[in-house]
Amino acid sequence: MSGRLGEKVALITGGGNGQGAAEARLFVAEEASVVVADLDDEAAAAVVADLRAAGGQAMAVHLDISDADEWATAVEATVDRFGQLDILVNNAAIFLGEGRIDAVSDEDWHRMFAVNSTGPFFGIRACVPAMRASGGGSIINIATTNALHGSNLTPAYGASKAAVINLTMSAAVQYGPDGIRANVILPGPTDTAMLRGFMGEAADRAADLLPLRRLGQPADIANGVLFLASDDAAWITGAQLNIDGGLRA
Questions:
Q1: N or C, fewer C-beta in 10 Å, the chain?
Q2: Torsion sign (Cα): 43, 46, 48, 51
Q3: Verdict on whether the full-model pTM lies above 0.85
Q4: Residues of the chain with pLDDT under 70
């Protein structure tokens, strides 16, 4: 099937690398116009060049998701270029390396919440008016299975992503009457630069603990994001979708 996102405009944060880039490519293949938002301007420009070479409509915007003013600028640029905004994918996040709670610095705690929790909050707040003007929309937030359980290694990351789950539920309740859906994806261990930076070669051994016996790939997550963005999910809001190789089974 193709054209599932025809005539829709999507803004994807962290779109210059990993899962965000995979989502951008899949969205363009499904005929969406895509705004690739990233701190890494070169990476975003490279993805946009690929999308345009494939015949897609795309643009890059610089975006620090922890900065409310940059969100306002990004949304304005999106509407100026494409005339509307229908889909927001809050994909960008950081992990700073942690350990036990008493080893987490104040700086790392606040920085992870600024990006991983406040960033999606700013994004929803900035994008909802444009989505209302478009007659509705779809918000897809990316959390993690770590948000659902305690951890010896990732207390700040897991807590910051748990906040995203609750934020998603509130958005679903508040904006459903406007035709705006909000859902959250909880990936398991996915083979990205963030995971490799944290686990190194141990990531491959972690795959042996999953029922499906492999790490997730960015495309696995992107396919779930596509479903929730599309009209195939028109009656789905407030949902938590585990894409985790059976980790939570």
A1: N
A2: negative
A3: yes
A4: 1, 194-200, 202-203
Contact partners, residue 248, CB within 8 Å, separation at least 6: 145, 148, 186, 188, 242
Domain ranges of the chain: 9-243
Residue by residue, DSSP assigns 205-224 as HHHTTSTT-S-B-HHHHHHH
Give residue 1's pLDDT. Answer: 46
Please identify which of the residues 121, 157, 175, 198 carries the catalytic annotation: 157
What class does CATH assign to 9-243?
alpha beta
The reply to whether 175 belongs to the active site is: no
Selection from 25, 60, 7 nearest residue 225 by Cα: 25
Q: What is the pLDDT of residues 36-60, one digit of tens each?
A: 999 999 999 999 999 999 999 999 9
Rounded Cα gap, residues 177 and 208, in angstroms = 44
Instruction: Provide Rg for the chain, Cα atoms.
Output: 17
Rounded Cα distance, 57 and 64, in Å: 23
Distance spanning both ends of the chain, measured CA to CA: 29
What does the alpha-carbon distance between residue 36 and residue 46 come to, in Å, rounded to a whole number? 10
Confidence (pLDDT) at 239: 98
